[in-house]
Specification:
alpha+beta; single chain; four-stranded antiparallel beta sheet; 7 strands; 26% helix; 4 helices; elongated
Length: 134
């Protein structure tokens, strides 16, 4: 069973330590003490709570597609030349960067402040773990 300290759990979810402690007090999450006497939570229980509480903006496109990884966000920056453009979106706590043609940026009407959806369809997703565990 993977355990993590309350402060680390809070950091991974983008909430305060106090919020995690409130969830524990409300019975939404169980905690125990580690060998050093620090409060820890079960990683699997935390993952389930995170998924249950996830608030994702609705996809306004109403388009059916096979890609499941859709991130709705706000365009924060566009760097473009005559041919290519780099478009940055802020999707919740995630910064997503896309490279596309400048023509596509114009056709989509993208500009800083506009809502856009990043659709990720990849055959390879690389997963890393901290501490070099293999």
């Amino acid at each position: 069973m993977t355990q993590m300290r309350i402060k680390d759990a809070a950091a991974f979810l983008g909430v305060s330590d106090d919020t995690v402690r409130r969830w524990i007090d409300l019975g939404l999450l169980e905690s125990e003490k580690d060998d050093a006497g620090r409060g820890v939570v079960d990683g699997l229980a935390l993952a389930r709570l995170a998924r249950k509480n996830a608030v994702l903006p609705a996809d306004p496109s109403e388009v059916g597609r096979s890609a499941r990884n859709r991130l709705v966000g706000v365009v924060t920056e566009i760097t473009a030349d005559r041919v290519m453009a780099q478009v940055e979106l802020q999707c919740g706590p995630h910064r997503i960067v896309s490279l596309m043609s400048s023509e596509a940026v114009r056709e989509l009407g993208l500009e800083p402040g506009s809502v856009a959806i990043a659709v990720v369809k990849a055959t390879t997703v690389i997963i890393e773990t901290p501490g070099g565990k293999a």
